[in-house]
What we know:
The protein is α+β, with helices and mostly antiparallel strands. It has helices at residues 33-48, 99-116; strands at residues 2-10, 16-24, 52-60, 63-70, 77-85, 124-132, 138-141. The protein has one domain (2-141): Trna Endonuclease, Chain: A, domain 1, CATH 3.40.1350.10. It is globular. The termini are far apart.
Amino acid sequence: MCILNIVSLVSLDGSMRTYRIVMNTKNRTGQGSTGYIAEDYVANMLKNEGNKILARNFSTRYGEIDIIYIEKSTGDLVFGEVKYRQDAECGYPYEYVTPQKLKKIEFCAEYFIENYLDELPKNMRIDVFSVLGEYSNIEHFKNVTG
């Protein structure tokens, strides 16, 4: 199911703009729900650090971006991928972010920028949040490339 979310963003010139963003609202119970809990935890952590969340679970025909936000300290537009694993028996969460997945995120990011932003931020990047076991065990990898 998708919902229309109205997001207000402050442009670089200080003016306020309003955008319509369609967000995917997948069922957060059952299979895969721990991944959504990890995404919620990361989003709350980012908000608590003063970052501005622009979208969550942003879906296009190219794929999905877990979290899109403006980083408070730098003003960077960040496209975040959250990976969760209960344990490292089959590898660490960040190891599951493949070059193919990064390419999908890049396509989604281009779509988001072209359709929802009036002007480009100075810097943009892809970050990966690797959550292992307890949700307090988060590794943040900045500016990940494939």
